[in-house]
Give the backbone structure.
Amino acid sequence: MMQFSSLIKNMVKEALLEDIGSGDITAELISKDKEVRARVITRESGIICGVEFVREVFNQIDPSLNLEFDVLDGDRVSKDQVLFKVSGKARSILTGERTALNFLQSLSGTATQTALYVSALSGTKTQLLDTRKTLPLYRQAQKYAVRCGGGKNHRMGLFDAFLIKENHIMAKGSITEAIQEARNLHATKTIEVEVERLDQLEEAIKAGAHMVMLDNFSLSNIKAAVMQNRGRVKLEVSGGVSLNNIREIAATGVDYVSCGIITKDIHALDLSMRLV
């Protein structure tokens, strides 16, 4: 897997190419020697994520720019708080403004959303997991943002762990057959099985699954699954999870709750840059 610093460089390079193209014609209105200072504030509270993306944006545009950050990734910020200041050539700052803020506000949105769900689990043993429901090509960045918000990462992709779902089971023939084949193919990989009924839970446990995902189980069936499991495997609840019911789900004693909303239905933090 690509090192995160290399990922940031590549993502920023592509984002700048998309935005600048053959050149920033509006920035050409400003004298190339004009120097200014600017500051970025947040217009709402949240959790910050994406500082190194911002640094990389301005570094690739103009390494002579000076950035001063007042926050770090994972910091909680309040409305109207200054996040960072940048000084140097006006053209460079204005050219990098939108790309830098796009990274910062979208990743901060993921971190902020995650923190809301993590807070709802406070005092329970249940941990919040993310999913593969991420923006294409943004997965590593969004999963990093989940960690900044206090959540935990599920598998990164299709390559690092098994998640045997309904269609895999149907195609293979049974849960037991699917688990046996998984162990034969990649003995060291974690095997998780998605189940829809309590009898499938028992089959998955006996066949050697490491984790079982309870897919769209009712609250009563989640409680029954925890009792039936007796701590033999890790249990994850998925489907229909919201801020309204996550606390109640956690009270059943499950190990994990996974939630796609923290990466796919985010509200980007409202940020603003002003020259000073």
Observations:
- The radius of gyration is 23 Å.
